[in-house]
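Entry 14. Structure prediction run on the chain below.
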Amino acid sequence: MKNGFFLEGHNGSTIFLIHGLTGTPNEMRFLANFFNKRMGYTVVCPRLANHGAPIDTLKKTTWQDCYQSIREAFLHIRDKSTGPVFTSGLSMGALLALLLGEEFNGNISGITCLSPTLFYDGWNVPWYATFLLPLFYATPLKHFAYFKEEPPYGFKNEALQKRVHKQFCKARLNDPQAVEQYGYPYFPMTLLHQLSLLVKYLTKVLPSIRIPVQIIQAKDDDMTSIKNSTFIFDRINSETKELVLLNDSYHVITADQERDTVARKMHDFYRRIACTIEKENEHSCKDKNHDRPISECYTLDT
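Output returned:
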């Protein structure tokens, strides 16, 4: 997996993590360590297509390129997994996780959407963006326009804000220095256009998603309002679904003030799913091997 990471676990379960647009796998590092070192999951976090490349290459990336890159990584891990596989994504990564769930519903046990981003309508987004962005998308200007990330950079944690601010303040358009750690300081308008096309496609397939879905978002998300979460929650047809709202974080909830809460909520959700799988397979386990304890059937460590 090119510049992503893979952590071998021991409990039989796998979590597939997807970082955000213009972001980096480091956004998911805390969750990766929590699930692998503390809970025993195998953890896979690929890098999205062209992320880490010069920005002139990145800006030519389509949403299909991004989906294909994680799809290939998912197929690789799916073929090696014998237990439950869970997918989770941050921001645009949450939308890609839903697409995986729609395409591979029989191979994914549950999905967690973290700060899902369909609309840039958070409190730190200028009100006029709603009107201006479609105009940019409709003209060649989108190929030349960028906007620079501004405070608070998705973090309520002041130490994280200062660290990112220090890097982004001195960053130039083609400066790769901060990219590996914090993602791209500049956001190509072409990628926002691609996100809008992804949202248009995903909206059509949301009703066909029936596997368990958990959505976690901060009430004070600076980039996207909770309308994004409720939009997804109201349209999926999952029998098991839950919406968790956080009180002390902004957009990047995988690294912000309540990252421990996020990890615990995710694990609780997956554990409930695993228990259901265990009950469904209880008789099957007995039939296949009378000597095998039921507790060995797809359980998660606590």
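The longest strand covers residues 85-90.
Filed with the rest of this week's runs.
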